[in-house]
Amino acid sequence: MNFLAIETSCDETAVAVFTDDLEVRANVVASQTELHARFRGVVPEVAARAHLERLLPTLDEALRQANLQLADIGCIAVLNSPGLVGALLVGVSAAKMLALALDVPLVAANHIEAHIYACRMAAGRDIFPCVGLVVSGGHTSLFHCRSALAFDLLGATIDDAAGEAFDKVAAILGLGFPGGPAVEREAQCGDPRAHQFPRSFLNQERLSFSFSGLKTAVLYALHGKNVSEGPAPPPGKQRADLAASFQQAVVDVLAAKCRQALDKTGLQRLAVGGGVAANRCLRSHLEALTREAGAELLIPPMSLCTDNAAMAAIAVEKWRQGAYAPMDLDAVATWSQ
Ligand code: KG4
Ligand code: ZN
Q: Which atom from ligand 1 is nearest to the alpha carbon of 178?
């Protein structure tokens, strides 16, 4: 049985083809990064229009790579929440239209849960139960994942997501967009102990995150207290130290909360998804903490960390249970379980 899956929640137009035994036959992503770079962030209206232009060519390319035709597709999957609602609507409308035209079931899944399911796809075996960390441009959340379809939220950010903080700090430091990879590169030459930036909730039991104060702390360290903006620093030690100290603060908090979540749940597996999971400093800290805790660490390769449609294979689990989506399926901007 072949599934065709669509993901358009933010700035990647993604279509994948996979089978009901989770073999990925195509995983195509058309990135819009260059369209949003000059705005130093994703512009929702620009993203939605670009999805409209790119979705059908991306779908054609996925079918070509899978060596299949539309008539070979037995189910349509779509990630309908959370995300930018205008962007999501493009994928949801296309998915409904395809399901109707092909007369096949439609299955909807949650983008955040799908990020964790990417670890299942990469592992090639069952990974549940596990602690799940989703750390991306839009989300920083910890879950107790009891099974592929039963996620309990343990905690989340109360303001900015970690990736959003990387993007904002990159803008402050004049490092371009997307900020994560640029800050990581800059941090390589910096001293992570040069600045003692805040680590919110670090010594508290609650599994929440907060990154907006950290971003402001970087701004103040650069321009002085209570200065809301100023020119980006030139390349050099000051800029590298700011990047390295910022990155270390984010990583320290993420790692500490993962350790707390493992201890609290008694689980011995940590699955990490989302674009920030590509960060090497984060990966090495998570490797060290899982080793120390006697737990297993699952982080997918880059192509499955950032937004993609192969992670929508979580829909296969729903399809098995007959949990089809109705034809009045909506795009939902905020997190829903
Ligand atoms: O999962 P993703 O592709 O999209 C969302 O669902 O948001 O994540 C994108 C985010 C961006 O904020 C980007 O700056 C961040 O992931 N990112 C990184 C790295 N690569 C991407 N953050 C830190 N270090 C990286 N190497
Ligand atoms: Zn995402």
A: 14
